[in-house]
Amino acid sequence: MVACTHRCCWCSSQTISAHRKHGLLERSITVDVLKVVAAQLIVWHHFSAYGPMADTMTLVWPSLVNWLYEDARLAVQVFLVVSGYLAGQSVMSKPVHQPLVLIGKRYLRLVPFYVLALTLVTCAVSLSRTSIHADWLPTEPNAWQFLTHVLLVSDLFGFEALSSGAWYVAIDFQLYVVLIVLCHDVRRNRFKRISIGVALLCIASMWQFNRIKELDIWAIYFFGAYGLGVLAAWSKRSKFDQTVFWIVALLAFGALWFEFRSRLCLALFTAIWLVIKPRGTIRWTPMKRVVHRLSNSAYVLFLTHFAAIVLFSSMWNKSHFYDPDTAFYLTAFAWLCCVGMGLFMHEKAEVPMHHWVSQKSKQLLLRFAKHTHRR
Description:
Blueprint: H1 13-22, H2 25-49, H3 52-57, H4 62-70, H5 76-90, H6 99-128, H7 143-150, H8 166-183, H9 191-207, H10 219-234, H11 239-258, H12 262-276, H13 286-296, H14 298-319, H15 324-374
């Protein structure tokens, strides 16, 4: 499966050969590039939104800092489309008979490292509390607040986020649950009906629900972008699915004409690019390996970089720096540290943790699947 190339260990030679055999490598590289670029923009957006270094840089580069704060955050739409694309591929050619098993696997895929990242962020915040006096620093969490984060319902219960990436993990899980529920059909492979269902929910989100800011803690607010990614993946399956995608894309242009939203515009063009991207020469070059490794670590980077922002902001305050050039160079160095930490923790923590959790939960999920199948 193509999805294995984005949130697990780096491809072995056998995996690369399999991708070449099935003609999927170039599509994988396209997704990798989108993830890498979007991840770096999100990190720089958070550097511009949090910490005293951004305030200092604004004295010399106000336009740059303002762009990072206002526009770079739109890169999260790329993540939503790509997430939908990969999820759509995973259920593209087989019926979903055990939805709760798939949902459980997804939860166990997202949460273990997420909990570790929250712990690291909480420790960083605790160490920096005496030197950072700003409202963007999370307050000291209590047990209930941490538990709601672990269960991915903190926003639904109105708890303050412990980290900048917490909301996205919860939304990604919600969106996956919605997709699996839509795809669940134990009687027959009714792919056309499922495609229409996803398309209708996508259209409803773009035309109505995505325009209501109060709904941004629910999957329906983001399903326009996510659904476009799902339909982009399914457009490779048949002429019917390709037609469904282009109809939804046309209606997305209509939604933009009715009320322009830059986030929806970016999501739409990202999905279109995934559909029309011409397949190039299949070669596994050193540059593609670098991009692939950075893509693998994007999830870790997304969850851990806030801890680095807190620690470097604390160091800035304690050092009493005031020079904008120093602020820029230190921010660039902090960004490189975030990228390096993401690569290191992906290999040394996320991958081993995922393998261990998968092994321990495999028997439990199989027993649950057999039990539900008998019923």
